[in-house]
Amino acid sequence: MSFKTDIEIAREANKKPIQEVGAKLGISSDDLLPYGHDKAKVSQQFINSVQDRPDGKLILVTAINPTPAGEGKTTTTVGLGDGLNAIGRNAAICIREASLGPCFGMKGGAAGGGYAQVVPMEEMNLHFTGDFHAITSAHNLLSAMIDNHIYWGNKLEIDERRVVWRRVMDMNDRALRDIVTSLGGVANGFPRQTGFDITVASEVMAILCLARDLTDLQRRLGDIIVAYTRAREPITCRDIKADGAMTVLLKDAMQPNLVQTLENNPAFVHGGPFANIAHGCNSVIATTTALKLADYVVTEAGFGADLGAEKFMNIKCRKAGIAPSAVVVVATVRAMKMNGGVAKADLGPENVQAVQAGCPNLGRHIENVKSFGVPVVVAINHFVSDTDAEVAAVKEYVASMGAEAILCKHWAKGSEGVIDLATRVAEIADADMANFAPLYPDEMSLFQKIETVAKRIYRADEVLADAKIRKQLKEWEEAGYGNLPVCMAKTQYSFTTDPNRRGAPTGHSVPIREVRLSAGAGFVVVICGEIMTMPGLPSVPASETIRLNSEGQIEGLF
């Protein structure tokens, strides 16, 4: 049986004018800033006008550790949003924007799939409304102003060896991870070692996704620590006098983007930090705005629950003052088989034993999410190769964990295939069963926070950190940053720092390679194992097969 590709389905979408989509949430056309006919930004003036309204119910969609077999977290987020609307609930979706890096690398885009997609899919996965370009420009403006300040006399007495602000670009390019700038003589400045991160790892991205408004945005930008003096005194973006110009560049990017699902339901798509190297959630302003306009808001957090959901709870919810009423953990039979030791090429035939062997990975995520005091439902994202016995094995295991698993066919059927999940999630959310609390208090020391995540979420025996890292954490605490949460940068493929260790391993260690203070965003980034903040392209990148056909349509994107 042949199936249409995601892009073929998206091109057949019966899209409505974005003004009609906005009207579903009570947003007038005057409060929308259109980008063409099918996407728009929501004005800050409108957002300010709805702040006195009560909040709807927040539903988080997360997943098991990703595998090459596919899980479908965004697809399930979109499907559940459509499903809630199909059963008569007023629901909106909040997801992240796509980075060009994985689109031209190997992961693909971030608009869902099958008949559970957000459109316009092609624009969303490419330049969209230009938010990422604005973030890249604002970040690199600060970089230019730091080097310019040093060139023109260095009045702040910046120690050129202690400039900690790296440049960014929204592309996978391993050659830029570690570079030397300002070569070529006196006219080009003072040579120093630095590097590039991908835009989604930028502190500016994190700040835009955590700021409540433009005033908060500029304050956070000003707080960014960019360098230190020889006396180890911090130099901020505000000291460089870059925060005002950066805010100007980000003025429009700060406004959430409104688009629609294939079933014409509203979707906010805004911000895009990766969860393996950043905090992995869409913007606070999009989520909190949606909560004022809809009775149910379905959002997602990147990668598995050990990364995205943990950061959603410990960073985003803590900073924004929000809490989920229910959490959906997405799993597939195919991924259970891979966690049970089956190779990707052998996933087709029925193998109940392998499904059962792989289920502990799912079980650990269920336990972890429950530890935040939030009720959990498992969505089994259906593949046509799944057998009844395999699905039954997952359901039986989940029941043994004190949760419920529901088979979902939204990829093939849209909202019709996810009615059972939507009904159950609405029941749980309406019952106000959640008693949410972050994993650790603000007062806990930074190293204890790292240990808490490593031991309680990853099930590690210990955290390995040399004296230099421990000293750095202590210095930040003494400088007043000890109350910040920690943002773990770690491989998404495993609970450990080894991407090849699937399942639910125990008895491992978490080695810390580096720590970075994101004073503006309001967290400490903890880089573990071999994770890179500038990814590389695979041996055969997706970009090799992306092109325009004779009709001017994009081929190879999906």
Helix content: 25-40%
CA-based shape: globular
Average pLDDT number: 95
Distance between the first and last residues' Cα = 19 Å
**How much is the radius of gyration in Å?**
23 Å
Poorly predicted regions are none
How many helices? The count is 20
Largest sheet, strands/sense/barrel: 12 strands, mixed
> Which structural class do you get from the secondary structure elements?
alpha/beta
- Strand % is 15-25%
Count the strands?
Answer: 25
Tell me what you see in this structure.
Helices cover 36% and strands 19% of the residues. The mean pLDDT is 95. It has 20 helices and 25 strands. A hairpin with a 4-residue loop joins β14 and β15 (266-269). Strands 1, 2, 3, 4, 5, 6, 14, 15, 16, 17, 18 and 19 form a twelve-stranded mixed sheet that branches. Strands 20-22-23-21 form a four-stranded mixed sheet. Strands 7-12-13 form a three-stranded antiparallel sheet. The protein has 558 residues and is α/β, with parallel strands linked by helices. 53% of the residues are buried.
